[in-house]
């Protein structure tokens, strides 16, 4: 497992041919993703003193000087890490922050990050910068919530296209009626990042807002048929977790032709190396 400057160097030294993506899992549903020469920190959860976290941060915010985009799917601490975003804005002074449109003004004002460094997305809204096209897709974090005034969604997933590749990061989500049709607007996905920690009444009463179960995640992958599916959101907090071997066992039984990756934090994953293999 690489961390700190060793991990930063691994990211910086990674050279990708057209049609390839590399990623490094930071824990929870957070990843560094490299597409071409563009570096994305997506749902990076880096606050070291957060209570009861099982996986310490692999990076200090001041070490992150290579970000082109810092992306948050929704305003929960383990996805938009308010404790560190201002420092990230200083460490990577040219990075843009991509968030749900509904959150832009609040985040800019409360985190003292200039408004012009934010890009707000919503259902079907896209931006094209630095060789990438990034599109928002609604996510249902227990409920498919919409702001009653603007109609904007507080929880998003993102489809990112670039370097001849397409990826989907769902953020935190449950299944909802249109998720399949939304995703099938794209012909193919090279990689999908989805949670598997599930939900139940006990956690909901304790304000742990739920996600798809490992079974639902397997069926979502089986329907969309990405080249590689990456389950996450299962190891950071003991009271909101799942056993990833259940995901691997079920997908191997039900969709044996779908490739998946389950591995170590800070490990470089070059997706071209995993298209015809499975790892646990």
UniProtKB/TrEMBL annotation:
* Ranges where the Metallo-beta-lactamase domain occurs: 42-234
Pfam families associated with the record: Lactamase_B_2 (PF12706)
InterPro entries linked to this entry: Metallo-B-lactamas, RibonucZ/Hydroxyglut_hydro, UPF0173_UPF0282_UlaG_hydrolase
* Originating gene: ulaG_2
The alphabetized UniProt keywords are: Hydrolase
**Gene3D superfamilies in the record, alphabetically?**
Ribonuclease Z/Hydroxyacylglutathione hydrolase-like (3.60.15.10)
Output the Gene Ontology terms for molecular function: hydrolase activity
**Protein name in UniProt:** Putative L-ascorbate-6-phosphate lactonase UlaG
Q: What is its EC number?
A: 3.1.1.-
């Amino acid at each position: 497992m690489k961390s700190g400057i060793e991990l930063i160097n691994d990211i910086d030294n990674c050279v990708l041919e057209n049609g390839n993506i590399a990623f490094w899992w930071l824990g929870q549903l957070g990843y560094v993703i490299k597409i071409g020469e563009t570096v994305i920190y997506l749902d990076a959860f880096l606050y070291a003193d957060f209570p009861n976290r099982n996986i310490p941060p692999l990076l200090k915010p001041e070490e992150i000087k290579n970000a082109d985009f810092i992306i948050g799917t929704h305003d929960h601490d383990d996805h938009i890490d308010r404790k560190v975003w201002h420092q990230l804005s200083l460490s990577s002074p040219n990075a843009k922050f991509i968030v749900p449109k509904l959150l832009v003004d609040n985040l800019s004002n409360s985190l003292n990050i200039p408004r012009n460094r934010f890009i707000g997305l919503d259902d079907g809204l896209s931006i094209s910068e630095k060789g990438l096209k990034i599109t928002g897709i609604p996510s249902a974090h227990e409920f498919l919530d919409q702001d009653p005034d603007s109609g904007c969604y507080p929880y998003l997933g993102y489809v990112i296209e670039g370097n001849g590749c397409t990826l989907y990061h769902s953020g935190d989500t449950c299944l909802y009626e249109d998720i399949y049709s939304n995703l099938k607007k794209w012909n193919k996905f090279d990689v999908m990042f989805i949670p598997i920690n599930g939900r139940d009444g006990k956690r909901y009463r304790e304000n742990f807002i739920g996600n798809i179960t490992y079974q639902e995640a397997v069926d979502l992958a089986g329907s969309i048929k990405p080249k590689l599916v990456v389950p996450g959101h299962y190891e950071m907090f003991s009271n909101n977790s799942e056993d990833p071997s259940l995901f691997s066992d079920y997908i191997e039984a039900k969709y044996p032709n779908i490739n998946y990756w389950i591995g170590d934090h800070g490990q470089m994953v070059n997706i071209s190396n995993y298209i015809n293999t499975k790892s646990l």
